[in-house]
């Protein structure tokens, strides 16, 4: 018995080796002589999955049989990153597997690099969902993540002639060993059509939704294993298909072509991730995607609940549903529909259950990112939900009108329906009304939410509001991506920090230790050499690993102010041109990030950066003092290579615009010092690491507001600052674009005459802070000390801490340890 168990799921090198060989032969029908790199990758992954599966089964049994509350995380995006290495770390068999693969004549790293990452998200919000799934499992909290199995994730970015070009992300092309297709687990989702109303035999009002399209959602499960625990939660992603019965009907009626067309319409729903981040588009397909996955997920939860023989009324005791922004907010109306129309509850009871089920996280203050649906369009896709939203709103407005009698402005602002030339549905209001808890993602963000976007909701229900500052998982963002730093830290303070990040504090006492400083900077240097090699390979550009690695990586967006950084680069360049022998700290400025394909300005900013790079990198006067890199296709895989090599982390958004940021945390945890504004979680990072270890600059959120109120005039900053004027004139006159003055025309105009994000207002302050960075970097020992202290004090920013806060204060759930029975 024990022997069999061992052969299949044992963790020794021997057992792993046999498992990999067995997989290669019995699953893939390959033998070493003909097996490809991908075959080996698959074999290792299946061997690892076998070991996760028994933990998964144990977890599911333990908490779906029991009386534990389960956290249900609803998110349209999961930016997971590659699975193999992460699972090896969480299982604790990285070394053993490396050895096993070696004995089979291959290199584990070579296989790990073969994995195509699932890029089922845009940026911060999607990556946060992935970090939270890791922490939920690690903290042994029963949880299920629900989302969409996009056939194409976030596009791949290539740079041609300095411009971004997009390519489709066919991430499933070599198969996906981490998911299990569950054909038997599927639900029907209705779209369009109309609603019939009638009174049944008991005199009860009933509604019958007759759709004009029915889609089937099929579950694909991916196990999410925690670190150093047995707990393995489920990420359940829905794929859309045509229901068999439906095309059959059409087919019988002689409509073969219609049936085929219908099939394509159905499959289109989960076809592709929308690549917009923080820019609402209002596309019908996107609404269909949202409703599709939310409906499948709620049907699934209700099924699980009722199968356990519990009363429908107790649904909220079994599941607490977290809404990752408003993208799944339609769930409020959908749960109402299911409770009313399917389970025949009365309105009050259904509303009571619904509002005890949902909690809502807001991730943005940008007005252009707030979801609104044209009411007419909405009614065409979801006629029954439109009725329900009207009724929810009617009852709500009745109360509000009494409470705020005469305050028409407030009443209009609270309404779920916006009026104007066209009526629209406000998803943030639906989410706020339908949830028992509302949170922002950093202290400043939550305060601003209460004062601006959700002000009226805060005044109506202050008890619903709380802050939950974001965090990141140290497993992926330190242990996996920076094994050298991990070893150095563990050597000093043991391995406890990996699960209890506050223990990093133990590093403080070594901050001035010369030997430790040297070892610390050696690790950093080694990482910079590695990244330099990648840059050479990818871009045929040589960079100096001794230079200051100045890193600005995130989605391209005007509010994130990559342009401000570009202006600094030009300023440094001009200093060299003005004084060719100038003694300055050599820098490598590294940018990376995708622009939404329809976001013209963001694309122009990429072109600006690559154009500056072309001039700077090829100017013999510059020598090795300045290099500009635009690293293409920023994704989780590339981020894991970039963060460890960073000396300086650029977090320079206009104050009040970045809800939290999480790249700021990842870079800092890898030893980079931050240059940043008082925005998002930067405020808290600075508080933790100490103001003396943070390069602060720029206006704060209040001052930004004040400047705007007093009438901001960017042109005067341009006129009054010769360095700034020179830089902008050069861009404008085609200095970086072969004298072509059209290339950056819109960009320069926007900066000089509009400058929504106050780039010009913060320019000088930024330059001064950068000069201070350079001066500090000259003192290697000082820099090392700051970097060590910085890491030592970052414990708060573990996603374990965030998840604990959610568990204690919102979800009211406790860990349920999973034991393996043999
Ligand atoms: C409505 C649609 C176009 C849309 C799609 C994606 C709107 C927003 C998004 C994504 C938003 C996002 O990623 N927000 C980021 O969330 C992070 C996690 O909380 C924050 O750290 C970050 O500041 C915020 O910009």
Automatic annotation (TrEMBL):
Keywords: Carbohydrate metabolism, Glycogen metabolism, Glycosyltransferase, Pyridoxal phosphate, Transferase. The modification N6-(pyridoxal phosphate)lysine is found at residue 666. One of its GO terms (biological process) is glycogen catabolic process. InterPro entries: Glycg_phsphrylas, Glyco_trans_35, Pyridoxal_P_attach_site. The keyword RNA-binding does not apply. GO terms for cellular component: cytoplasm. GO terms for molecular function: glycogen phosphorylase activity; pyridoxal phosphate binding. Its cofactor is pyridoxal 5'-phosphate. The keyword Glycosyltransferase applies. It is an enzyme of class 2 (transferase). It catalyses: [(1->4)-alpha-D-glucosyl](n) + phosphate = [(1->4)-alpha-D-glucosyl](n-1) + alpha-D-glucose 1-phosphate. PANTHER family: GLYCOGEN PHOSPHORYLASE, GLYCOGEN PHOSPHORYLASE, LIVER FORM. Allosteric enzyme that catalyzes the rate-limiting step in glycogen catabolism, the phosphorolytic cleavage of glycogen to produce glucose-1-phosphate, and plays a central role in maintaining cellular and organismal glucose homeostasis. NCBIfam families: P_ylase. Belongs to the glycogen phosphorylase family. This is Alpha-1,4 glucan phosphorylase. The lineage of its organism: Bacteria, Pseudomonadati, Bacteroidota, Cytophagia, Cytophagales.
